[in-house]
Design brief:
mainly alpha; 35% helix
Length: 145
């Protein structure tokens, strides 16, 4: 971000009564999780969703991730599913944490508007039966089951 962009953003945030704190360079570098941060950090509260918040309309897809560990991939998949109109996303055991900074960056805001729930496999199966969903499976290794 250019300094003028940061100034404009800070003015917009102040106009919405968003608290703003200025940090020393040292403190900023300790908190930033990237090698070359863009000059801003945000402290946010992520929405908390459950399976009950994911209610697909007939034939509306739901993204299900099973042990997708790369945070960048998880964020990209969430962003793509949101953009394509999926009802939500379900992350099974072993998938990257939704609060991971790389997930948040790759999702580019989808994390705040797209219902996502991290659940155990048994809860997912129960949800599938209750919602009468049709499950399609794709595997990275492409092998048969």
């Amino acid at each position: 971000m250019q300094p003028s962009d940061i100034e404009k953003l800070l003015a917009q945030l102040a106009g919405h009564a968003v608290p703003i704190e200025e940090l020393s360079e040292h403190s900023f570098q300790q908190l930033a999780d990237t090698e070359t941060p863009q000059g801003l950090l945000a402290v946010v509260t992520l929405p908390t969703w459950t399976l009950a918040d994911i209610a697909p309309a007939p034939r509306q897809p739901v993204l299900v991730l099973d042990a997708v560990q790369d945070p960048g991939n998880v964020g990209t998949l969430l962003r793509t599913a949101f953009g394509l109109g999926a009802a939500g996303a379900i992350l099974l055991r072993g998938s990257a944490d939704l609060a991971n900074p790389k997930v948040l960056r790759a999702a580019m805001g989808a994390t705040f508007r797209f219902p996502t729930a991290s659940v155990e496999p048994d809860a997912f199966v129960t949800w599938c039966r209750r919602e009468s969903v049709e499950v399609w499976i794709a595997a990275a290794e492409g092998g048969g089951w």
